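From the methods appendix. Each design record in this collection lists the tokenized structure first, followed by the designed amino acid sequence. Records were kept in a plain field format so they could be parsed without special tools. The example shown here is representative of the layout used throughout.

RECORD:
FOLD TOKENS (679 positions):
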């Protein structure tokens, strides 16, 4: 109950009842109760109160004798509380007295009200008239909690010690195997610790709840080893649990590290295995835009598969960075090695993917330029294969300009193709740097041969087109020259016609005297020279037209009728010119003779001897007048007059006036001849 005798020995109370008492159970109970106090407390001895007020003497006697076998050394006094109807005094006294020396402890029979003679009232419970408050059920519950805590904590300590000790010794594999076998304790350490703290708190308060709510000393005090034992167990538990948490942390970290390592190797193995194999099999660049686009689509599928692993790489890199920031020295080297390996493989694979993507993009651009150039060459070739049938020189010039523009565009396209091809060849030459030792010479040779073949084919096609353009250019220039010759020849005909028209309409004056007529005659000869040059120029142009037509193997549209027209106009001009010359020459002779006659003096001796001159001048004048009235007759029978009738009448009038003067002069010369015989 927690009560003590006057020697500070613990009081052990054995309440007996009317029912049959099992000695075996009582013996076990006494063994348990006597195991609770400390050795120091046991050394002070026990005072045993046997409450026999509700039992038989034989039972009391058996219990007292049993104390000799259970706790003979610790019992110093046994107080047997007798009932009011006491047993046979002689028998009881004789038995205890007789057994005193053999028992080893003193046994007294005492009434409950006189028990205070041996034990202080404050150390006795109310059952024996004392004031010590004691609740056996409360003590029992606390004891059960204590026993449970002791049992669980002891078992837990053994388990934790096994786990912790297993993690501190042996190889890494042994530690992991030990941890695997004993990793989870049978009870929750947190729960046991919580129970222990609650129990310790109650023990430190040294109180328990009685039936009347009062306060009393707890029988589970230091002397009963409860509080120190709980504290010791808690300390041990905290120590082992702390070590256990560290072991768990290390295990968790090791597990996390192993998981990271496993995932890293999964990423590395896939990227260096199936991922790299996918890239190794995709070495072609295609032979057309459609083929390159198909390869690009396939590459996008490969990139999509890689993206999933790259996402795992990002997650792993973040986890490794978090572990590195935690700063465990023993794992830093391994973590950094894993991080470096993972980064190297991922960056290398990403570089390969990017290189492949750039290569396919360059191939697509190359084939696109090649296709555009091929279409341009086809268009140029189609244009060259069509016969040229222009209407005039301007359309030929326009066609020639278009041809030159197309050829220039082809030159630009071929230059662009060479640049794209060279760039693609440069990229292919760098492909061996990420081939993982795989010989890509054969595959690259096929790509290189294809690129060079396309560029050479385009160069040959362009050269053929250039040759055809040169031929077409020469032909078109000849046609331009042909049209120009025809146009200039027609212009020469027009000019000659204009000269003929001017000759007929404006060259009508015959001059007022011989000098003026000679001037007109000289001007006419120069005028004829111009016409002759125009005619010769036209003839040369028409001859060039014939040569060009023979070179072009074609017939001219206009040269066939231009030459007859030129010859016809020239013949008309020649006839008209000859008539003009004849008239001017006649006029010169007329004016010269007339002026000579009119200037002669009558006193000259021979003036009258040459009368034939007058007849001649009259004949010339009449002939000239007759010519003025006669039209010019052309070889084709057509006729044409010089000037208008009024112009001819004016010229004839001037000649007639001069003929009148000559006639008057003649008469003057004849009059002296008539008067001389009369005189």
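DESIGN:
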């Amino acid at each position: 109950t927690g009560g003590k005798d006057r020697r500070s020995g613990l009081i052990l109370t054995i309440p007996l009842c009317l029912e049959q008492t099992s000695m075996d159970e009582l013996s076990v109970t006494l063994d348990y109760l006597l195991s609770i106090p400390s050795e120091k407390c046991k050394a002070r001895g026990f005072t045993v109160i046997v409450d026999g007020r509700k039992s038989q003497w034989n039972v009391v006697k058996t219990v007292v004798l049993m104390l000799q076998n259970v706790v003979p050394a610790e019992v110093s006094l046994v107080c047997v509380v007798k009932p009011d109807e006491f047993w046979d005094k002689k028998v009881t006294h004789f038995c205890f007295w007789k057994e005193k020396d053999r028992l080893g402890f003193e046994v007294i029979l005492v009434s409950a009200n006189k028990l205070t003679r041996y034990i202080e009232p404050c150390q006795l419970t109310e059952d024996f008239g004392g004031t010590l408050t004691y609740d056996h059920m409360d003590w029992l519950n606390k004891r059960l909690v204590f026993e449970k805590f002791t049992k669980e904590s002891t078992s837990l300590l053994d388990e934790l010690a096994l786990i912790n000790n297993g993690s501190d010794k042996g190889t890494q594999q042994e530690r992991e195997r030990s941890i695997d076998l004993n990793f989870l304790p049978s009870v929750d350490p947190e729960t046991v610790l919580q129970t222990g703290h609650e129990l310790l708190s109650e023990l430190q308060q040294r109180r328990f709840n009685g039936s009347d709510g009062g306060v009393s000393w707890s029988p589970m005090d230091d002397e009963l080893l409860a509080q120190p034992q709980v504290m010791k167990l808690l300390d041990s538990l905290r120590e082992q649990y702390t070590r256990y948490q560290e072991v768990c942390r290390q295990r968790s970290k090791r597990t996390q590290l192993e998981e990271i390592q496993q995932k890293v190797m999964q990423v590395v193995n896939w990227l260096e295995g199936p991922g790299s194999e996918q890239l190794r099999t995709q070495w072609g660049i295609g032979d057309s835009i459609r083929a390159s686009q198909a390869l690009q689509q396939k590459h996008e599928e490969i990139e999509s598969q890689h993206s999933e692993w790259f996402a795992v790489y990002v997650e792993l890199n973040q986890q490794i960075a978090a572990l590195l920031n935690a700063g465990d020295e023993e794992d830093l080297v391994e973590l950094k090695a894993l991080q470096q390996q993972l980064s190297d493989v991922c960056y290398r694979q990403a570089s390969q993917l990017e290189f492949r993507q750039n290569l396919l993009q360059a191939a697509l651009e190359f084939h696109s330029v090649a296709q555009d150039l091929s279409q341009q060459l086809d268009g140029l070739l189609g244009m060259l294969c069509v016969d040229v049938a222009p209407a005039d020189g301007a359309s030929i010039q326009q066609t020639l300009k278009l041809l030159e523009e197309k050829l220039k565009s082809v030159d630009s396209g071929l230059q662009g193709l060479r640049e794209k091809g060279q760039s693609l060849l440069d990229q292919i030459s760098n492909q061996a740097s990420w081939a993982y030792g795989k010989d890509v010479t054969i595959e690259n040779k096929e790509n290189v041969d294809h690129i060079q073949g396309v560029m050479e084919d385009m160069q040959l096609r362009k050269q053929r087109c250039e040759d055809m353009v040169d031929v077409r250019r020469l032909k078109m220039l000849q046609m331009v020259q042909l049209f120009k010759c025809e146009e200039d020849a027609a212009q020469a005909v027009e000019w000659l016609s204009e000269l003929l028209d001017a000759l007929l309409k404006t060259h009508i004056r015959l001059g007022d005297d011989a000098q003026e007529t000679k001037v007109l005659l000289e001007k006419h000869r120069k005028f004829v020279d111009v016409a002759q040059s125009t005619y010769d120029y036209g003839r040369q142009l028409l001859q060039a037209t014939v040569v060009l037509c023979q070179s072009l193997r074609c017939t001219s549209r206009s040269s066939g009728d231009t030459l007859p027209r030129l010859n016809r106009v020239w013949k008309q001009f020649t006839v008209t010119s000859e008539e003009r010359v004849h008239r001017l020459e006649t006029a010169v002779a007329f004016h010269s003779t007339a002026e000579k006659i009119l200037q002669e003096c009558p006193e000259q001796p021979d003036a009258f001897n040459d009368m034939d001159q007058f007849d001649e001048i009259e004949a010339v004048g009449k002939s000239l007048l007759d010519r003025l009235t006669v039209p010019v007759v052309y070889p084709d029978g057509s006729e044409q007059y010089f000037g208008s009738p009024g112009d001819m009448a004016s010229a004839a009038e001037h000649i007639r006036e001069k003929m009148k003067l000559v006639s008057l002069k003649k008469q003057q010369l004849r009059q002296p001849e008539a008067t001389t015989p009369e005189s």
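APPENDIX NOTE: The first strand starts at residue 10 and ends at 15.
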